[in-house]
Amino acid sequence: MMEYNQITEKDLAEIATFMDRERLLFGKEINEEYSHDELASVRTYPTLVARVTSTEEVSKLMAYANKHHIAVTPRGAGTGLVGASVAVEQGIMIDTTLMNHILELDEKNLTLTVEPGVLLMELKSYVEEQGFYYPPDPGEKSATIGGNISTNAGGMTAVKYGVTRDYVRALEVVLADGTVMQLGGKVVKNSSGYDLKDMIIGSEGTLAFVTKAVLKLLPLPKKNVTLLVPFPSLEQAIGTVPLIIQAKSVPTAIEFMEREVILDAEEYLGRKFPDNQADAYLLLKFDGNTMEEIASYYDETAQICLDQGAIDILIADTEERSLPVWKTRGAFLEAIKSSTSMMDEVDVVVPRSQVNEFVEFVHELRGEIGIRIKSFGHAGDGNLHVYILKDDLSDKEWERLLSIAMQRMYAKAHELRGQVSGEHGIGLVKRPYLQESLPETSLVLMRGIKKVFDPNNILNPHKVCQA
User: Fold this and answer.
1) What angle do CA 238, 239, 243 make, to 5 degrees?
2) Do residues 162 and 201 make contact, with C-beta atoms less than 8 angstroms apart?
3) Cα–Cα separations (whole angstroms), residue 435 to 373, 385, 431
């Protein structure tokens, strides 16, 4: 285990020479929220939280930490689910939430330049008011764009539009020694050597610290329609998804959900879902520039669903009708979390043709080992969100059953040629499963890349591939 130096009063005084002391939280000044992420399964307090406002401050902090061998943990809104923003070695936590400015909308190049602390919901609202569209759409809209870049977040629209990496044109980053670098640019194509920018995206703050991003925008689709499709069983609902994909109708999103999760969301939100009588549902969205164009997509999809046993096709063709549906879908995580004493999650991704088999496996597993498991997810891109719930189990029994459930699910995903994480990342808590799923050669290469970027291993230690 590598040893790190801890922050002292002397370090605090030195750092306060280049940062406002009011934006430095030390020791008992640090709020409880900084000790954990959204799931709160791992808790460790940093010794110092630096609420930075500029690239220059990040650069000076990194140079200081590198010189004195102090661990640094990057943090945005703390909405992660895998412990990536938890300060395992205490040290310095760099909070980017004050770096929350939209710097430039370049309409000629269809790009938006932002600081890392801009919230996803604010970014989307801003560009849509200007007639543009930023497609990546993770469920947690209060996450920062820096956090989205760090995990290569995907979300509900990935089936049609792709993931965060597909929309990052350029990054400004600070390396572990404080060096500031510009990666990429406003160019559409780039074959100029290794793509260091793409290497930073999805690295969870282990290789460099993102301080600016240039994002690709699209013209805003003028119309969209939502289909809510109830099925008698989850098997029928999930089994329909490959047929929709094969039909090439290209929905913007294909989500699956079960009745029990909808009921959790109704209780959590205090309002009714448009339909809660069926066992399972597909939720589809289509976008385009005219209703006629969209209708040409969803007519065929609706018929496929009916042919596969769908009970009905509920069409929401106005914002007033569709908004409650998507708000309910967006509340699933919090609703499940509020229904139990503790939970852990799996966000495996499998080939789209194997989604049905994996979901059926999860259903059989929960009956076999006797633990409550709830699931929903992005059926259109094979990314499943599975939540294992503690309820009133003893700590010892919880740990035992959780370990069995995790091992069985990751083994099944591996058997289906899937991957450990589709969008939530590896962080701290999923690292053992990544090590089991990847060949040793891949892990050796990852650790070598980490060593080149961060020789002293101060940037987010113990995350992704580093022990």
Assistant:
1) 110
2) no
3) 24, 20, 6
